[in-house]
Amino acid sequence: MTRRSCAIYATGIVCAHLLIVGIALVVAQVFQTMIHSRLKKEMTLTEKSRVFESWKNPPPPVYMEYYFFNVTNPEEFLKGGKASVKQIGPYTYREYRPRENITFLENGTKIYALNPKTFVFVPEKSAGDPKVDIIRTVNIPYVVRHDSSGPLLFMTRTVDEFLWGFKDPILTKIHSMKPDVDEYFGLMWKKNGTHEGEFVFHTGEENYLDYGKIDTWNGLRKMSWWSSNQSNMINGTDGAVFHPLINRNELLYIFAADLCRSIHLAYVEDVEVKGIQAYRFAPPSDVLMSPEDNPANKGFCVPAGDCLGTGVLKVSVCREGAPIVVSFPHFYQADPKYINAVDGLNPNKEEHETYLDLQPTTGVPIRACKRAQLNIIMKRVQGFPKTKYINETIFPIMFVNETATIDDDSASQMRTLLLIVTLVSNFPLLIVGLGIILLLVLVVLFCRNRQKKNEVKRIDFTEAFHSFTTAKEDTAYTQVSDKPDEPSETPANQPMRNGSYIAMSPVEAQKC
């Protein structure tokens, strides 16, 4: 056997083995299963996990932007006209939110933690100075306490006072009679450096799908504010982590303590953030849909049957009875009647949608935008002359835009991790690809070998034919006579004789 033949047979054997092994691994999904198993073990809230440190102290910077609705025509509204507002902001604060008092429970299957939030003003990302800029807005203490002898229905304060607190004359008067009532008011009063409650999370050790899910909040597994068991459920995570191997068809649940309820998010589209492919999830329209259109929301009507329309949620039950309503900014996805009740609103998806971009393999949030608006119900109250002519309105006060995007270092690490995962998961395809390449090489070698053999046969035939032809030429014209050639001296009157070659006898010339 020639060296060329050996090479062809060896290539064929290797090619066959690669194709068989590669196809078998692809069908069995051995490497993919191995990677998924490793991810499920790595994505846990345990000290040995690589994600634990980033869960305790998230590296991506979180920014809280505050926007306010400045009332431009308070007198007209008090006379029964439509309110007009102008959005001002943002006033941006860097948010620091480390986990503290971390304690493992029940053999490491659960973990207790507090999550205090601290806010630091960022002037370069803000529209102005909160200690200087003044806004005119609803006098919330007056509306909540209904003090008939109080000041005007609207008040003018600096942004800093309205956010972080000021001593309010109405509350001071009440405080003198009820010391348990705080005499200071601010939308973020006593919320800088404090937490939203005590959380116990599942670590994901027992089931990767439970990774980061809330077990209890302030010792509760369900709330008691709402009018149905489903509405009172504490579902999902706190929004910081999600289980790995997310698919597009599932719903993700988040418990939002500031909204006093759990909400769900559905897949919207594929996006790319800093070179990382991600799935975008957002609250679908049914989250704040009217109970008439979505009966599952009947439980959020308190008392039962007292419901608002689509796009708004009354949270008085968890705000000490205050007529507070939450919605998306500018009443995005809300009933048009709420949008049209106030001039100056312009809801749009780009600026007002809440969404979460998740890397589906690891479940890590790559980018997040949480947007929520605070409103208050303004209506006539008998015995309070200042409300005599106003029309009932869900009045916008302010909205927040809480954003976070993965930092560059974390993004680089994520891209490297995903590259490794992709290469390992697709290793069987690489084997199949190599087998196909060798198959092509085998075909080329085989064709060239056939061509070489044909060339050898053609050369042998040509040489044989040439030898046969040469031999024939050497023997074709041998003379019969042994007589040496003599010069012809035929007389002129004597006729020529014919025939001096093979098979040609001399013949006398015939006379006509």
UniProtKB/TrEMBL annotation:
<feature type="transmembrane region" description="Helical">
    <location>
        <begin position="7"/>
        <end position="31"/>
    </location>
</feature>
<dbReference type="GO" id="GO:0005764">
    <property type="term" value="C:lysosome"/>
</dbReference>
<feature type="transmembrane region" description="Helical">
    <location>
        <begin position="417"/>
        <end position="447"/>
    </location>
</feature>
<keyword id="KW-1133">Transmembrane helix</keyword>
<dbReference type="GO" id="GO:0006898">
    <property type="term" value="P:receptor-mediated endocytosis"/>
</dbReference>
<dbReference type="GO" id="GO:0006622">
    <property type="term" value="P:protein targeting to lysosome"/>
</dbReference>
<dbReference type="GO" id="GO:0005044">
    <property type="term" value="F:scavenger receptor activity"/>
</dbReference>
<dbReference type="Pfam" id="PF01130">
    <property type="entry name" value="CD36"/>
</dbReference>
<feature type="region of interest" description="Disordered">
    <location>
        <begin position="475"/>
        <end position="512"/>
    </location>
</feature>
<comment type="similarity">
    <text>Belongs to the CD36 family.</text>
</comment>
<keyword id="KW-0325">Glycoprotein</keyword>
<keyword id="KW-0812">Transmembrane</keyword>
<dbReference type="InterPro" id="IPR002159">
    <property type="entry name" value="CD36_fam"/>
</dbReference>
<protein>
    <submittedName>
        <fullName>Scavenger receptor class B, member 2a</fullName>
    </submittedName>
</protein>
<keyword id="KW-0472">Membrane</keyword>
<dbReference type="GO" id="GO:0016020">
    <property type="term" value="C:membrane"/>
</dbReference>
<dbReference type="InterPro" id="IPR005429">
    <property type="entry name" value="LimpII"/>
</dbReference>
